[in-house]
Amino acid sequence: MVKVTIDGKQVEVPDKTTVFEAVRGLGNTLPHYCYHPGIGIEGSCRVCQVQVEGPGKMPKRLAISCRTEVAEGMTIWTDSEPAKSARRFVLEFLLKNHPLDCPICDKAGECTLQNFAFDSGQGRSRSMEERRALRKRVDLGEVILFDEERCILCTRCVRFQDAVIQDPQLGVRNRGPDSVVGTIPALQGQGTSTGDTPLHGNYQGCLADVCPVGALTLKKFRFQARAWQLKATPSVCTFCSRGCNTHVETFRGAIKRIRPRFHEKINQYWMCDVGRFAYDDANERSGRLSVPLVRREGGYTETSYEAGLAEAGKLLKSAAGPNLLAIASPFLTNEEGAAFVDFCKHLGATPRFVAPPIGAADEKLYTGDPCPNRRGLTELGIAPATSAEIAALAKDAKAVFLVGEYALDLLDLAPAADGSKASAFLDNPKLPAVICERRHVARPGVAVGLPALNAFEKSGTFTQCDGIQQKIHPSMPVPPGAISDRETIVRVKEAVLSVGHAAKGAH
Amino acid sequence: MAEKYLLTRIETPGYGGSLREYTATGGYEALKLALAKKPEEVCGIVKDSGLRGRGGAGFPTGLKWTFMPPATDPRPRYLAVNADESEPGTCKDRVLMERDPHSVVEGVMIAAYAIRAKAAYIYIRGEYRASKAALDRAIAEARAAGLIGKPLASSGLGGEVTLQVYTHVGAGAYICGEETALMESLEGKRGHPRPKPPFPANFGLWGQPTTVNNIETVTNVPYILTRGPQWFMTMGTKASPGNFLCGISGHVNRPGVYEVPLGIKAKEIIDQIAGGVWKGRKLKALIPGGSSSGFLPAPIVETMVMDHDGTKAAGSMFGTGAMIVLDETTCVVRATKVLCQFYHHETCGQCSQCREGCAWLDQICTRIENGDGHASDVTALLALADGMRSKTICALSDAAAIPVQLAVQHFRAEFEQHIAERRCPFGNRKMEIHHDGLHDESHIHNTQSVHTDVLTLHGIQHGDRVVGAARRA
Ligand SMILES: Cc1cc2nc3c(=O)[nH]c(=O)nc-3n(C[C@H](O)[C@H](O)[C@H](O)COP(=O)(O)O)c2cc1C
Ligand code: SF4
Ligand code: SF4
Fold it and tell me: Whose CA is nearest to atom 2 of ligand 1?
């Protein structure tokens, strides 16, 4: 530990701490562009300047706080006139060519050029020069649109690719004020709509996160909402077993964007594009079940929960025992999983969950395992079962209980060798099935359809691949009338157990 | 006339710079002397001589060498010799390299030995083809004669040291003369200066301990070894001993590269050595030490002494000792604009202040010169130049700001006259304004073309005439 004085306050900070982080520790974040704690220290934007004196006889001087380490007896001024003036100047220089198209910029409201100019900049621009005219809509592939004019050349994006992903794809062309960030020029006719080499990889979305301004923006978020209109819910990604921490951002009841939330051990500052962009399905509200459906002559009819559950109870009761095929989705939370285990115990069924083989992992976070709670459910005693195993078990089954979103999709993820679908047993009218899914499944075997919730609508815990239990929080409203999966499982169990009693009481 | 040593051979009629001619005039004697001593002793002699770097910063050379880690440090170490010579007005190193390359090679070898480097890289400005050819020839000759690449038998290190000397050409970027950019460039990367610390003596070329020295600096070393530090201190001043090569250009009758003692009066160089301001005109301003040292008005030049302290006292700096003379018909606004344009083109663009500021200063000066200035422009120039002088990675940002600061400080009325009259009072044609980001290929010129602009503005051509002048001197 070393003792330093920051703006007149004596503090003790660990050795090797940078002045920037020491100041941040006191709750004051200095302006910074090139520095990003996840990417590293560069020291080129020069906007985090402070005045320091010492150690020893070192005179009072301006220094960039991101690259200056604290030393015993150092005195630091963040608010002296020379320090403030240096930062004000850097902001003035950065704004000289900035297009100031904030009203139509997706970054507005969360742009650190705006925020630090507000904190440390000056109110008036001295520039009378023509602003830089560059390409405004550079197509960098499926994920990113790049506005050359907005770029402040912090090179975070370049260094993110180099240092974090270790797949250099971006660079700075030209020199000095002519510098422009971009991908390597594409060979004739091989580029994107603007002739540029497209970015590749599973972490392109992170580029929009690290860009401090609206230069690198997500095509998918383009003109979707103003940043300040978004409601951010802290949650956890459920699209692989890594469990990256996220903020799910919604506007008018729809998810507009998902961004990584720092978790030191799991995902640091990052998340992959698979999880980042997997929200369209959650936003799709049409066709959602909010009340139970039961099969009647000529089709399905909506019923009350009581009636639907009673029917499900009757049906499952008759099949209770080892031949009741009970299958959970790997998207069930630990709490839902516990209810499912309890259900199976009471009905004499073996608890299983759909567990397709683990696919290819990517270079960083994505595990390739589509089962977000494989570890949690397994630890609860629910056996992972492949599609083939489930299809084989269905041959001797008397009834089926299938619960949780994506269970069917995962069951049919990879078709069997003969091309048949693993879920073909649902087409057998002699094998009645109770299915708890988000959308109605109208297949000959399905006798009762119960509403299920989406991971964005649930609360509960998941256990990610390394065994860390994490809470998810609902960011989307539950379809009106629908109940949680856990409650559905419990109530189906109760309905089964009360079949005989209800009959007695009725007459 | 004061004693000379750097140009003595060059100014001898018929001297061709070959190994035979060089050794016949005492060449490579200093190397023998050096190898008979311990590297630390060689360091000590150079330290005692008070030699200061001739690359721009004037840092004491012997002291710089002692920053290298002790002999017990097992890491490889390097000497990088700076022959990038791109500072407008500066054309002295090429004289040494082209006309007496063996004196350079000998200096390089002794310097390398003093810091225990087994390899020295001479980084040559891209356009200096003749310098590169002359050095390569000299290195080949020295190699054939067993001076380079063989164990240094008589060395104080017990005959096990083999020294290699390589040349490397840059691609014509001024910034590659900055010592850390030079190392990046040598490593095959873009010439971007590195933030310091770490300093080169600890983390230099390929991350190993490295010393960077200018060509003229190392060429002084053999003479110091053969004649001794006491002799060296008889020339120049106490704080800045020795002679320096003064490249004088601009509006003088005899531009050229002259060897003069530090501490000489600037006026003496202009009036006597360079034959006075041309066309019988009066001196208006002087750039004393390369473009970065800015403009000084005639009254200050009148008494100024050409050494590190003297130029500093005049509010400027010694820099590369390259004087550019401006006569009374010169428009200072235009001259400032030309320098700004140079820095605008040469800033590497890492630091926000420098990247945007260099362009901004250029644009404002161009507008003023073209008669499109605003009343607020002069204060804006001063403020922006001030802002560019907060912390940046290298000194280019300061180098770009200083000429503007000095021009406005000493010639403010001229700027204001341009603005008030909405034209250049010297009747100059309008200049092209370089907006950011609108550059097409035709705007992209190399250092050479801008460099030449600067010199032609002052009536000087680059090339043989300069070297020729050295011959005549
Ligand atoms: C922008 C910039 C350009 C420079 N260009 C040169 C150059 O062309 N030649 C040179 O010797 N030094 C140049 N220098 C100075 C070098 O960084 C370094 O100080 C010098 O080579 C050290 O040598 P010395 O100690 O022998 O003077 C430049 C510095 C800056 C900031
Ligand atoms: S695109 Fe964004 S992240 Fe990349 S250099 Fe420009 S401002 Fe920085
Ligand atoms: S001061 Fe200018 S030239 Fe030097 S590193 Fe910064 S931007 Fe590049």
Answer: B178
